[in-house]
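User: Hi! I have a protein structure encoded as tokens and I'd like to know what sequence might fold into it. I'm fairly new to this, so please keep things simple.
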């Protein structure tokens, strides 16, 4: 087992990883920018190192500074959290070259899944269902027209290097295609320095359903069921739940087993998430994230499995602590991402939290790095924390969530708590009937 882990992240996820390390008896090193000197993860870690000025590229993305911090503190492993360097294969390679373990999958798997065309090809080879579309990159408009006619309009042009929903364009007719192809290409070039694009069928009303997996790198892998993350704004997840209200038990077992079998074939190591769009009873692979996800706690709440603990154990060479038959799903969990934003306009609202009172009680978990008097810096994402609620069933979970939102006080800044308070009272949400466009439509009609 590792003796000291450096946590290459900030905010709630740095704290989340720190908690897992402490429970394993592993010493912790926090790193921080000058803007985060007062952060909770810095206060609670055994040691801390300032790695640079506020802009992320000079601190949390600064590989030489992180390496130096490992060297100074003698850390033997790095947990990257999510975002920042968590899906950077070069960082994993560099750490390995310096004898420091990267708590995540192999650089090779990070690379494959980081390239959408390569990821889709790999998924197909592993028997995972994908969205019908071009076989690899599309090079000419003639080819694009032929494929689009084949799969049927509307089609979506996507950037191979894409992320965060950028470089995606819908074409409804052959006439749209030329323009969509051109804009997707130039957006991809500008955002990612790579203009490779591919085409797939545009699904009109899908849900976003993702499967959490854990592998040990030796061909053992399990799935921990699915999360439904269909409630999104600008492709950003807002509310996540496990299990999905849209799946029945046999659909769940089938897709879970398909994904777990694929991970066994790949000899995948660590935690990962295979993301699908789901429409009319069919699953369509969109991407795989080779890291811990923001919404992992809903899975922990229904399985009782500490995903970060498993990541650390597997990275240190231990086998998975469970088999598929050990995993059962208990009740229902919902996560709300509470942001420091105006609940109507979503304008960022950094600043000092003058009063902070998180909810508590049975089945309630608040993952947050903030505290009363803390100043949310303007340089990073606006996540104040995650409210995760568990109930014996979805109805109990929703009742508890409503109660928690009424109890939750964050003063001094604006937060998205009122948005969630309105959502829990909506009949579609109560019934679990929503797709990936539902929230934007709802926001449009509640202006
Ligand atoms: P990114 O990495 O940029 O987030 P994804 O491939 O994960 O790209 O897709 C982001 C979002 O775009 C999805 O959650 C979904 O809302 C939408 N999307 C992606 N592919 C399709 C598709 N074929 N049809 C309809 N919507 C899609």
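Assistant: Happy to help. Inverse folding works backwards from shape to sequence: for each of the 447 positions I chose a residue that suits the local structure. Here it is:
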């Amino acid at each position: 087992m590792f003796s000291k882990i450096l946590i290459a992240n900030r905010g709630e996820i740095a704290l989340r990883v720190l908690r897992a390390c402490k429970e394993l008896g592993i010493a912790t090193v926090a790193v921080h920018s000058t803007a985060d000197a007062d952060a909770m993860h810095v206060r609670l870690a055994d040691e801390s190192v300032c790695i640079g000025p506020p802009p992320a590229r000079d601190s949390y993305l600064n590989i030489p500074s992180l390496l130096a911090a490992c060297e100074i503190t003698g850390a033997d492993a790095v947990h990257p959290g999510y975002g920042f360097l968590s899906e950077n294969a070069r960082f994993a390679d560099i750490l390995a070259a310096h004898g420091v373990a990267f708590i995540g999958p192999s650089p090779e798997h990070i690379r494959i899944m980081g390239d959408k065309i390569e990821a889709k090809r790999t998924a197909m080879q592993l028997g995972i269902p994908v969205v019908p579309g071009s076989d690899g990159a599309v090079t000419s408009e003639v080819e694009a027209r032929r494929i689009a006619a084949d799969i049927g309009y509307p089609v979506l042009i996507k950037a191979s290097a894409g992320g965060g929903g950028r470089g995606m364009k819908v074409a409804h007719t052959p006439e749209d295609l030329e323009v969509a192809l051109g804009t997707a290409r130039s957006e991809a070039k500008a955002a990612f320095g790579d203009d490779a694009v591919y085409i797939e069928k545009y699904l009109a009303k899908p849900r976003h359903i993702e499967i959490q997996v854990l592998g040990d790198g030796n061909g053992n892998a399990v799935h921990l069921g699915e999360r439904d993350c269909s409630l999104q704004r600008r492709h950003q997840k807002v509310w996540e739940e496990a299990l999905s209200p849209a799946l029945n038990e046999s659909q769940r077992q089938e897709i879970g087993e398909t994904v777990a079998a694929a991970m066994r074939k790949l000899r995948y190591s660590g935690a990962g998430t295979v993301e699908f769009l789901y429409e009319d009873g069919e699953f369509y692979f969109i991407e795989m994230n080779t890291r811990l996800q923001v919404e992992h706690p809903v899975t922990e709440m229904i399985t009782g499995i500490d995903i970060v603990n498993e990541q650390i154990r597997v990275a240190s060479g231990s086998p998975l602590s469970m088999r598929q038959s050990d995993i059962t799903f208990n009740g229902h969990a919902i996560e709300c991402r509470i942001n420091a934003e105006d609940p109507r306009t979503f304008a960022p609202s950094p600043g000092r939290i003058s009063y902070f009172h998180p909810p508590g009680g049975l089945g309630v978990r608040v993952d947050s790095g903030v505290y009363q008097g803390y100043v949310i810096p303007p340089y990073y994402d606006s996540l104040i924390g995650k409210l995760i609620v568990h109930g014996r069933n979805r109805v109990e979970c929703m009742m508890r969530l409503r109660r928690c939102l009424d109890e939750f006080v964050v003063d001094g800044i604006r937060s998205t708590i009122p948005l969630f308070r309105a959502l829990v009272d909506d009949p579609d949400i109560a019934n679990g009937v929503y797709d990936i466009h539902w929230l934007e439509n709802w926001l449009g009609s509640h202006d």
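A useful reference point when you look it over: Residues 174-192 form the longest helix (19 residues). Feel free to ask if any position seems puzzling.
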